[in-house]
Amino acid sequence: MIIVDDVYKRYQCDQGLGKWVLHGVTFTIPPQVNVGLMGRNGAGKSTLLRLIGGIDTPNRGRIERRCRVSWPMGFAGGLQGSLTGRQNVKFVCRIHGHERDLPDRLRYIEDFAELGCAFDEPVKTYSSGMKSRLQFGLSLAFDFDVYISDEVTSSGDAAFNKKASEAFKQLAHRAGLIMVSHGEDTLKEFCTAGIWLHEGKAHWFDRIDDALKAYKESFSS
Amino acid sequence: MSLMRSSISITWAVWKALFLREAVARLFAGRAAWVWILAEPIVHLLFLLVLFGLYLKQVVSGIDGGLFIMTGLLGFFMVQNTALRCKDAIDANAALFAYRQVLAVDTVLVRATVEAVLLLLCALVLLAGLGLLGYKVVPQNFLLVMLSFAALWLAGIGLGLVLSVGSELIPEVGKVAGILFRPLYFLSGVMYPASAISPAYRDWFLLNPLLHGIETLRAGFFPQYHVISGVSLAYLVGFAMVTVFLGLALHVRFAPRLIAQ
Lengths: 221, 261
Prior knowledge:
Largest sheet of chain A: 6 strands, mixed
Largest interface: A-B, 32 and 32 residues
Largest sheet of chain B: none
Number of helices of chain A: 7
Order of helices and strands of chain B: HHHHHHHHHH
Helix content of chain A: 25-40%
Oligomer: heterodimer
Order of helices and strands of chain A: EEEHEEHHHEHEHEEH
Shape of chain B: globular
Helix content of chain B: over 70%
Shape of chain A: globular
Radius of gyration of chain A: 18 Å
Number of strands of chain B: 0
Strand content of chain A: 15-25%
Strand content of chain B: under 5%
Distance between the termini of chain A: 35 Å
Strand order of the largest sheet of chain A: 5-6-7-3-8-9
Structural class of chain A: alpha/beta
């Protein structure tokens, strides 16, 4: 369960404080519910995901995570360029408390990402496709209760995309999901509930179809 | 619902992982990076020896000029390397803040530990090498040497904690700090004993906490070293404690802004 209670967020800009990105956002995500997040560009979707993921803090309000929440998947960050893929994987395993079964996780990620000998090369030499393979494999290797995903399902080559979407479907079955996507079909496929972000407010819909409808009506009128 | 870890076990796991990450990056980053970690103080030492070695032999009677400068250098590097490496810790690890387990203060503290371990290893290698050449390298008061190193290290952490926040919020702070360490090098008694300072200026020189640590370090090393009155390890420890607490307070206060990218 994730409780977001009256959250406000704005950023420091070059000329003083920016405008409120999130302005009093309140909702509760029950356990095992997959939620799709929608809104225009700049509506605060990624900001909200970062706040839920705990890598940024709200200016006001409170976010409570009563379960294990993943880091936001699909972000460019999280990999250290000067270290190899293997060293990065080891680091992430260690901070998540998997020192003991590290070899298992390592093997799983190595198999999933299919990077071959590039796995032992520095991450800064990777192409963006290779990076997203590694990142996706990483996030699958841990048993989170809720996964946060910022448009991860569309990178890599055709073969990997197929494998990734299979894995993603399995994941959506066994754990909760909070995802951002501009693809209507993707949202419908994975999510049951929806949140529409509009002008700093969040509108919760128990059914994803209603959320999509409200979202579409907002720019047709 | 899966088991939640306690805050302490998370922090401990993060510190271990960061330590390995930092050590690998530092030792194996480029071609034979570890050679340079060792070579830098040695070359520095040799350079100073050529410049001052003969002269110093006369100034501090009974103490070898090389060992004298080496103790000063190691003491000074303990503060400078720790402080300046810690200053950049947050920037260098920015990518890792994507995991909420990693805090800005973790990267600073772990980096300080890595620096201390590397410098102590470096000191051991240097002393062992000089010992093989026939120098008398075993300190007469080992405990005082380690205490002085620890106090200097703590001062380095304190400065590093403050500078890491400072340079993140105001980039100029980092540049000014780099400039200020240059005169500090000459004011801390790396190349001369405190007793060589004219009594008229001693009180001013003794305001510098690093001078105290380097003096007690030498007192622990050489049995015949004369320490002037007014030198106290407690002054350095006090300085270190104040800066450490100030630095930690700054980290607590600005934690969200340090992690935000």
